[in-house]
């Protein structure tokens, strides 16, 4: 299979990580990959397979890249195109469906969408979906949704035929996650004994959530023997340390910054608290689930809500409610960890399963095209 994988830029780290995993996974199966970035300049490419040819169009906007994509299609004649993200989806569909004489099948991937309340009248829901889903998407040969909630919005939009849509969850759980998690924790600030360990891996987008977690620890500390470790880089790290000190948490809260191989700590945790407040599925949360660690997530996005909807040892708490988060922490550290529904759910997000799904779908689309030509 000669495949074009297209992304808009390197600025969206989540999509960049997904395209990297998919490209490397398919390249390992002897497919020839051209990885096209529409805007921006290249970053370190040492972790890409030698079978991957990187191309950087370096346009100011994704919309200006359609002509460049069309020229590449006519020159390289790929078997199929896989696009990730709204800008790339529109550019690729515009390039192939309106600018190129070579009609290559295009699979577009949707990583986000609006949330449409089921309390609205069905006609209102359909109208909202029609506005949210670009009209050009009806020309895609397949529409890959990375969440059921995204597929639901696309299905409400009657301009995209239902038979074109499918779900492939993002490849968030590495194949070697158990091997990495089994490596020893040698950091001196981590106490492997005694207290129940509450772990989170936060970032700049989760400032309010980190503060919610600190306040929940202040409420919980006298009800159970707990220690919290807030891992990961954050611009408000000093502010977090100051708040922890003001809440008299210096003795039970450690904020060490970035750590190598955080899976080690996810496995050692009694509970993992996801401080993500985005709609996408938090990668660290799903990896914690794969390792059998109970998880708590803030009910502020469709991703965590969907992942935890049918599992035990998974809690959703309202964003901003420290009391509810405290209650969930106290319940989670005492739950029965022999239950395997968390690990079973996490398998939906394994890299191997996602690459299998992409390969099967893309090859079937190529076969359909060959049949149509004959």
Automatic annotation (TrEMBL):
> How is this protein named in the record?
Glycosyltransferase
Q: Where is the Glycosyl transferase family domain?
A: 193-347
Start and end residues of each Glycosyltransferase subfamily 4-like N-terminal domain: 22-171
Q: Which GO terms describe its molecular function?
A: glycosyltransferase activity
Entries under Pfam families matching the protein: Glyco_transf_4 (PF13439), Glycos_transf_1 (PF00534)
Gene3D superfamilies assigned to the protein according to its UniProt record, in alphabetical order: Glycogen Phosphorylase B (3.40.50.2000)
Checking InterPro entries in the record gives: Glyco_trans_1, Glyco_trans_4-like_N
Query: According to the UniProt record, what class of enzyme is this?
Result: transferase
Q: Which UniProt keywords apply?
A: Glycosyltransferase, Transferase
State the EC number(s).
Answer: 2.4.-.-
């Amino acid at each position: 299979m000669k495949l074009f994988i297209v992304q808009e830029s390197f600025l969206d780290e989540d999509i960049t990580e997904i395209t990297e995993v998919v490209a490397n996974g398919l390249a390992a199966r002897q497919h020839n990959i051209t990885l096209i970035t529409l805007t921006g300049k290249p970053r370190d490419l040492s972790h890409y397979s030698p079978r991957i040819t990187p191309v950087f169009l370096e346009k100011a906007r994704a919309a200006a890249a359609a002509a460049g994509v069309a020229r590449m299609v006519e020159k390289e004649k790929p078997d199929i195109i896989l696009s990730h993200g709204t800008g790339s989806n529109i550019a690729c569909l515009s390039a192939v469906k309106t600018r190129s004489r070579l009609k290559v099948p295009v699979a577009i991937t949707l990583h986000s969408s609006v949330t449409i309340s089921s309390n609205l009248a069905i006609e209102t829901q359909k109208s909202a979906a029609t506005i949210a889903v670009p009209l050009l998407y009806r020309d895609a040969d397949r529409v890959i949704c990375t969440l059921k909630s995204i597929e639901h919005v696309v299905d409400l939009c009657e301009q995209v035929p239902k038979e074109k849509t499918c779900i492939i969850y993002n490849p968030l759980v590495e194949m070697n996650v158990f091997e990495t998690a089994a490596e020893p924790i040698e950091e001196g600030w981590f106490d492997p004994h005694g207290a129940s360990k509450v772990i989170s891996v936060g970032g700049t987008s989760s400032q309010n959530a980190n503060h919610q977690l600190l306040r929940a620890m202040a409420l919980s500390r006298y009800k159970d023997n707990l220690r919290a470790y807030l891992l990961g880089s954050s611009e408000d790290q000093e502010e977090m340390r100051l708040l922890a000190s003001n809440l008299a948490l210096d003795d039970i809260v450690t904020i060490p910054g970035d750590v190598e191989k955080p899976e080690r700590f996810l496995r050692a945790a009694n509970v993992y608290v996801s401080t993500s407040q985005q709609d996408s599925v938090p990668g660290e949360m799903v990896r914690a689930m794969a390792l059998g660690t109970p998880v708590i997530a803030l009910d502020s996005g469709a991703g965590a809500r969907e992942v935890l909807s049918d599992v035990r040892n998974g809690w959703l708490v309202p964003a901003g409610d420290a009391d509810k988060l405290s209650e969930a922490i106290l319940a989670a550290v005492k739950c029965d960890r022999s239950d395997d529904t968390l690990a079973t759910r996490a398998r939906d997000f394994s890299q191997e399963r996602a690459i299998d799904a992409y390969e099967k779908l893309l090859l079937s689309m190529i076969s359909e095209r060959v049949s149509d030509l004959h």
